[in-house]
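Interim report to the steering committee. The following record documents the input for ABC transporter substrate-binding protein (458 residues).
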Amino acid sequence: MRSTSSKNRTRRAAKPAAALLAAALALALTGCGGGGNKSSNDGGSSGSSGSVKLPKLNGQTLEVAAVWTGAEQDNFMKVMDEFKKRTGAKVNFVPTGNNTSTFLGTKIQGGQPPDVAFLPQVGVLHQFADKGWLKPLGADAKAQLEKNFSKGWGDLGAWKGKQYGVYAKAANKSLVWYNTKAFEAAGITQAPKTWKDFLSTAQTLSDAGSPAVSVGGADGWTLTDWFENVYLSQAGPEKYDQLAAHKIKWTDPSVKDALTTLAQLWGKNDLIAGGTKGALNTEFPKSVTQTFSGSTPAAMVFEGDFVAANINGDTKAKLGTDAKVFPFPAVGSQAPVVSGGDVAVALKDNKGAQALLTFLASTDAAEIWAAQGGILSPNKEMDQSKYKDAITAQIAKQLLAAGDNFRFDMSDQAPAAFGGTAGIGEWKDLQDFLRNPKDVAGAQQKLEADAAKAYAAG
């Protein structure tokens, strides 16, 4: 369920982005210092001095729904504080939980949709648009989008010739964050560049007494990200695109290879913090905090750039000093570059919803949000010095420099019933595989059965 434009975008080569990622993170690892704040902004007006024009909303209350909790939610509300200041609106935030499409679908069908929602899956945008649940962007929002975003990011928010969304928040999901003290204690001086080196590093850390890898297996979406990085690097971009569109089956030998590779880590309890059982009971935020806090912290945690928000908000670790990052290790000839994002869409046809989308597409909002930490913006016109820390600034620079040469999160391209819902589909199937990594064939069969059903239903 992808638009032609999205499909064409994802077919472009991933190699340039992989090289840019390695170069950018090398700079971050060697020259970021203590991760100091590069911006004087802390939720106030951006350096562009309110360049985007917004209407006065005279106390109108807007409801905004998104999956974020904790530090991510708090950081977003700093952006909303500025929106409220400029427009006079009130903003209520409603957390959707991981089942975003189900939560919103129920609200819409009950006649009480939020004004604006952030959708974490491209497939959900397509489904909602087909149902007539989304309102197209107004002229002002479209003008900001066209001015500040590349065509690739604009295309991701469009469907069947209509522009519905703004990707105000992006993610680089090909990163491994590590506890520098754990690496030093184990005598590790270089970050691993290949999967073989990654497994060797994990074993060295484990032997030195550190839980090697923290896995947030209670949240199935983190496991899809593990799979996608391994699959993209090992099978290559063409196969990735085919599997994302379900043009090849999950019983394909390339999927077997990727699951077998994952089992090299997931099948070793001594390399996973808390073992398999512990991983399945660990939600994403805890997977970060148990890497950078506690008496026996884990050494590494895989996930996107948004990990920085959890490090900053939930631990005392300092980015660039206590917490550093390296690219996801190459399984094949190239390191993978997988991206994701949250697209803001209007579910009500009113002036307030369109004003909020216009603001979210502006450099003003992007700079305020970036100053909080833990976010990447695809906004190419924003002042890059507004990022809170040097690591995030370098990762953002890499994302922009890569243009469209990356692959969008595979599960986010799938129908929500397969790639975006807790307790069913790919999320559950990979949790079951984490529970029993020896059953590669069984996992493939279950993944294919669930994928076939979801794609057939649309």
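The mean pLDDT is 88. The committee is asked to note this result when reviewing the revised timeline.
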